Amino acid sequence: MQPSAERNLEQIRRWLDSGDIPGLDGYLNALHPADIAEVIGRLEPGEQQQILSLLERHEEAEVLEYADEAVRGEIVSDLDDKRVSEIAEEMPPEEAADLLIELPEERAEHVLELMAAPEAEEVEDLLRYPPESAGGLMAPALARVRDDQSVGALLDQIRSSDELQEADIYYIYVVDASDRVQGIVPLWDLLRATRGLPVRELMQEVQAIPADMDQEEVAALFGKYDLAAAPVVDKDGRLLGRITHDEIQDVLREETNEDISKFAGTDDDELASLSSINTARLRLPWLLICLAGTFVSASVLHSFGGTLQAYLILVFFVPAVTATAGNSGLQTATMTVRGLATGYVERVGAWPLVLKQVKATVLVAIACGLVGGVVAAVWSDFSSQHVAPGSAAMLGGIIGGSMFAAICVSATLGVLVPMAFRKVGIDPAVASGPLITTSSDIFSLLVYLGVASALLTQLGT
Amino acid sequence: MQPSAERNLEQIRRWLDSGDIPGLDGYLNALHPADIAEVIGRLEPGEQQQILSLLERHEEAEVLEYADEAVRGEIVSDLDDKRVSEIAEEMPPEEAADLLIELPEERAEHVLELMAAPEAEEVEDLLRYPPESAGGLMAPALARVRDDQSVGALLDQIRSSDELQEADIYYIYVVDASDRVQGIVPLWDLLRATRGLPVRELMQEVQAIPADMDQEEVAALFGKYDLAAAPVVDKDGRLLGRITHDEIQDVLREETNEDISKFAGTDDDELASLSSINTARLRLPWLLICLAGTFVSASVLHSFGGTLQAYLILVFFVPAVTATAGNSGLQTATMTVRGLATGYVERVGAWPLVLKQVKATVLVAIACGLVGGVVAAVWSDFSSQHVAPGSAAMLGGIIGGSMFAAICVSATLGVLVPMAFRKVGIDPAVASGPLITTSSDIFSLLVYLGVASALLTQLGT
Fold it and tell me: CB of A248 within 8 A of CB of A224?
């Protein structure tokens, strides 16, 4: 898609520079709102306003619906509240709610006041739910039918109502007299049914989603049952709204950013804002925690100061030990966290996973220990200065052996810490990334220097 | 969902132990196939077979459709080819293709031979496309209509055909006389249309997807236009099949695992198999590359051996420098990679992103440098042995200053390397994780020790 985006951007720039407004207008009309949304962030604020001013309100609304959160935020900040309220009125209520939730509270309230009553009410209803809950994802359920109706009556209802004109609808939601969800009727089955048939006969079971369910859980449900849409219900099972597949795709993309950001010890909010102070604020806590951890490593090194001064080569291989241990710890931690996040551990069981990790770790630890040991031996053999007394082979064996031990220890941490976090109800993803590498630094240094100095003293060198 | 899964597992185990087969049968019949698929991996192979044997072929097929890849692989390996072919016949062709693609080639071919001709042909058609391409994702497009037909004729066609009974269909695909895709008719609009209307009048534009498009690009298209389904076409625009939202959700989950695995220097194939040798094989290359990198770090340390022996405190703070530099490098790299992967960089532009990263880095570098410096000063002040001559404040300043420099350098690496990789056409995600931390180790040590020893000698201590 990038090429098409670049082409559109070029064209729009050319039209803007040429000042040929009717030409620009014509070009924009030929584009899908999503295509305009894709490139508008690359233009100067002034140009952005110029482009929006050429669109009709409903087109403007669509472009903002498709636009990136950060881009939309910047554009809306340049519009007055009246204009924003007019745009919000043109949006489906769930999109308008997403727009308002990004505004400062008092501004959002003012925009709501400016909006026409019915639209404003629908939006306010949706704003009651936390944005990361099923209620925050849902749109009003447009097509609902009483379970005692006939297919014919339903069809007439659908054909007569104008508000349903623009909607993209996959299921009809069947409710009882007190609005409790009974099931769904896929449009496909409705098309094939005869008018006389009672709706109840066409009805299929459906997974109703409580409004307070977390969006990750909702996405998991959609994945488990391959749903295109699902009804959202209150505590008594009454129909509140519907969630569609496109919301779920957004959730999955969001979660990807969230999870990956956690691995790096930051937060995906970074992606939604261009403020560097905000970014620093999100990163610093992790960095300081890790920094504190490194002071523990420092005192470990300090406590072995004598050995280090006598065998400086041990210092040279500190990065080799901490890095390989850290990386294999990160690998086991990552795969354990993913196993937990994807429900893989639930479906396959924890033990097969742990067993696999342990065996794999021993294999890589042997390989790395060997390489490290050989290199260390050669090193101490060839380089005289600052290295050490004692035979090269012995030093190589010691360094290789302690590397092996260090890798095993931090790989074990990588499996156990996320599992433990899960048990006590902390998000396992927190256990990966910086936290695992820092703790692995400490433990691998302890093991490495502990084993090394023990062997050295024992060998009486 | 986990609680419900646990409950189902318990119940099934209880029925199995009780040996009350009719009871078990009854319990299974009350479950959705996805619920059985969710827990079957936790049972012993014998128990798995017992449960499948209680299901009818089409139920058995559904359970395997919903089951985890690794679980399905193990179950199928215990079934004979005849049984597998019967199951494959019960599956929709795209699911059967996914099943066969996981089998050893000669086994897959044998199963195909055993399948009934029409089903086998449909599956073979789909198997022609690479699994990660649009063709690999697609299902046969069931509901197609000529653009010169009337709504009435289309409705009659839909009602008469039996093969369309079970299908979940959202759009009718409109084609011309030579089967080239002209557009779609959403079922919803079809429901509201009058029989006399020509289908052409109901038709909406649609994003047709070339069969050879990569699945990531397909997912991006679905996200950009919020599609529920899209037609897949050959080079001449002829309708080959359709891709639906649920396939896209699977792709997004897959990509998440792939990306996150890359950050940890391994591969998400780990999650699809229980082989530890395979796992080790996937991880070792990265570990060895990093290990090689650490030997460079070792020679850096070696070359400063004299300074280190004189100022052993510099050694104690090596982890502080490498870890904080590595982490902030990882943070900038991760966010840059995500920015590129999500198209955020395209939509907002590269410069605002780089600028934000630079400013944020300077801020965190100052903070970490200060903390590190103060601690180093206090450290050298209180701890006499193995530390250093010279004033504590001076040492603190030197260590803090060189930490600041080291962080800035590796954070810059974190931004530039992924962007450079993208430019030359390497997946930027490769640049994150182990690669960035290893190179950051080398550079941060160079900067740290370079600055420190320069200052120390200059200060003539």
Answer: no
Residue B301: what are its φ and ψ, rounded to 5°?
-60, -45
Strand runs labelled E in B88-175: 144-146, 171-175
Residues of A within 8 A of B365 (CB-CB) are none
Chain A positions touching B288 (Cβ under 8 A) are 367-368, 371
> Under an 8 A CB cutoff, do B312 and A309 touch?
yes
Rg, Å, chain A Cα set: 31
Window from A359-373, A410-424, A426-440 with minimum mean pLDDT: A426-440
Pairing of strands B171-175, B181-186: antiparallel
A393 token code pair:
């082979």
What pLDDT, in 10s, does the model give residues B218-252? 999 998 888 889 999 999 999 999 999 999 999 99
Measure the CA–CA gap between B138 and B141, rounded to whole angstroms: 8
Contact A330 B167 (CB under 8 A): no
Taking a C-beta distance cutoff of 8 angstroms, is the pair A333, B270 a contact? no
Task: Name the burial class of residue A160, with classes exposed (0-12), middle (13-18) and buried (19+) by CB atoms within 10 angstroms of its CB.
Answer: exposed
pTM: 0.84
For every residue of B284-313, DSSP letters joined together read HHHHHHHHHHHHHHHHHHHHTHHHHHH-HH
| Interatomic CA distance for residues B160 and B157, integer angstroms | 5
Do the chains contact at A316 and B309, CB–CB below 8 Å?
A: no
Query: Bridge partners of A243?
Result: A230
Residue B184: per-residue pLDDT: 93
Nearest-by-CA chain B residue for A314: B298
Rounded CA separation B155/A258 (Å): 46
Give B302 to chain A, closest Cα distance, Å. 6
Cβ pair A140, A122 in contact under 8 A:
yes
Confidence of residue A163 (pLDDT cuts 50, 70, 90): low
Own/partner long-range contacts of A115-118 (Cβ < 8 Å, ≥24 apart): A115/A85, A115/A88, A115/A89, A116/A89
Tokens at residue B266, please? 């391994």
CA distances from B287 to A202, B2, B284, B312, B318 (A): 58, 35, 5, 29, 21
The three-state secondary structure class of A193 is coil
Element (H, E) at A188: helix A187-192
pLDDT in tens, A301-310: 999 988 888 8
Contact B320, B428 (CB under 8 A): no
Long-range pairs for B374-377: beta carbons < 8 A, 24 or more residues apart: B374/B400, B375/A295, B376/B313, B376/B317, B376/B400
C-beta neighbour count of A214 within 10 angstroms: 14
The two counts, helices (H) then strands (E), for chain A are 25, 6
- Cα angle at B42 between B40 and B48, to 5 degrees? 45
Contacts of A284 in chain B (CB under 8 A): 363-364, 367
- Which residue type does B230 have? A
Q: Is B441 within 8 Å of A335 when comparing Cβ atoms?
A: no
Contact A364 B338 (CB under 8 A): no
